[in-house]
Design goal:
136 residues; 5-stranded antiparallel β-sheet; 5 strands
Length: 136
């Protein structure tokens, strides 16, 4: 068998394996350790925080805060979304609220609503937690 013929056969066998593997598991319901589940993305986005902030006024009203605008570019915004690249391992929404407190002053009160991306989906992290900026 020549090298070209061997390469062609090897390529075809690998291509068939790649095509039949997902079909075997997902369409035919097969269960085999050689044909694993096809997973496009595994942990992309895990730990990203979707947070909304509001400043509580003395009369009980709330003013929505655009923390990206207030913090002048400290965080990047993803396209067409309210999800900011706030990561849980860096303190998450509480850390951003602390940065907002530095800008808004010690008298400010900030309400946080946030959720965190996990492997099983979005999990609510802070649901209406209020941060008093003047207290340590």
């Amino acid at each position: 068998m020549s090298k070209d013929c061997f390469r062609t056969v090897a390529f075809l066998l690998i291509a068939i394996f790649m095509l039949i593997g997902p079909v075997y598991r997902q369409v035919l319901g097969g269960d085999n350790r050689f044909f694993r589940n096809w997973i496009m993305f595994s942990t992309i986005g895990v730990g990203i925080v979707d947070a909304r902030f509001a400043q509580l006024m003395d009369d009980g009203s709330e003013i929505a805060l655009d923390h990206h605008e207030i913090l002048a570019g400290k965080y990047r915004k993803t396209r067409r979304s309210n999800i900011w690249l706030i990561q849980n391992r860096y303190g998450g929404a509480r850390a951003v609220a602390g940065s907002l407190c530095k800008v808004l002053g010690p008298e400010a009160r900030i309400k946080i609503n946030s959720r965190v991306a996990t492997r099983i989906g979005w999990i609510r992290e802070l649901d209406g937690e209020i941060v008093q900026c003047g207290t340590p």
